[in-house]
Amino acid sequence: MKAYVFPGQGAQFSGMGKDLYDQYPQAKEMFEKANDILGFDIMKIMFEGSAEDLKKTEVTQPAIYIHSVIKAKVLGIQPELVAGHSLGEFSALAAIGVFSFEDGLKLVAKRATAMQAATEQTEGTMAAVLGLEDTIVEEVCEGIENVVPANYNCPGQLVISGAVRGIHDACEILKEKGAKRALVLPVGGAFHSPLMQPAREELAKAIENTVFHDAVCPVYQNVPTTAVTSSEEIKKNLIAQLTAPVKWTQSVQNMILDGANTFSEVGPGKVLQGLIKKINREVDVNSAE
């Protein structure tokens, strides 16, 4: 059974999407629609911008969404199962018609600006913890105020999120407990933690005012990690995602239990392929072509 997976922030690169724009009339039309919706020339930034230009949250999130959904549409993918990592969930849902490309882009733009605003209200950051059991990381987080597990990327790789001081304290404790690395990340905020509550409230309003359809195939959302098809469930989980951890390891394991044996990554980069291989070496992984 074939699953399609969609990447989140961090997969962007300079020049992303230019090949699609040049090759497919449908892609060209969708890129132009994206410019109109966003009110700025995202094509120019994607095709010609520097890595620094692409790092801004209000650019990164729409850029990855646009690239991923356009690629899915021009390739005409017919998934049996789908999942997306954080932001990638929006790409996955647009790719299978839960909402339109245009509506999804509006939601992603709202999500990006709301997250940016929340980071400016709170002193938050994130850190990658490598080489420890999840349970040890979870125990350390429980003992520190405003620090939580945020991204279960693969066994031995868990990102934590929260208040700056708490994250630095957690890193010291985790190193003492044997972490190979506990590295504060160059991010502007505590994503996927309770510090994102103001962004969650903003996004919830936008989601409630957007038309969602039931999914045509099972979607394995970051919350709750098991198969979902109901539009109402999808909405609820998409809202919860902003303050809850991305349980990527668990989502992939559940997809495999339900029959997935091939995973195709749709969008920029190969980040998810690497993570899936670390979760289960038996499955096939590739880039959607």
Work out the strand percent: 15-25%
User: Secondary-structure element sequence?
Assistant: EHHHHHEHHEHEEHEHEEHHEHE
Query: Total helix count?
Result: 13
Strands of the biggest beta sheet: in what spatial order? Answer: 2-1-9-10
Largest sheet: 4 strands, parallel
What's the end-to-end separation, in Å? Answer: 17 Å
Q: How many beta-strand runs?
A: 10
What helical percentage do the residues reach?
40-55%
**Low-confidence parts, pLDDT < 50 over ≥5 residues?**
none
Shape: globular
> On the 0-100 scale, what is the average pLDDT?
95
Class by SSE composition: alpha/beta
Rg, nearest Å: 18 Å
Describe the structure using short key phrases.
289 residues, alpha/beta, four-stranded parallel beta sheet, four-stranded antiparallel beta sheet, 13 helices, 10 strands, 16% strand
Briefly summarize what is shown.
With 289 residues, this protein is of the alpha/beta class. The protein is 49% helix and 16% strand.
Detailed description of the structure:
This protein is an alpha/beta fold and 289 residues long. Helices cover 49% and strands 16% of the residues. The chain contains 13 helices and ten strands. It has helices at residues 18-23, 25-38, 42-48, 51-54, 57-75, 88-95, 101-121, 134-142, 164-176, 197-208, 231-240, 248-257, 271-279, and strands spanning 2-6, 81-84, 124-130, 147-154, 157-163, 181-184, 219-220, 227-228, 262-265, 284-287. A four-stranded parallel sheet has the order 2-1-9-10, with helices on both faces. The radius of gyration is 18 Å and the shape is globular. It starts with a strand and ends with a strand. The mean pLDDT is 95.
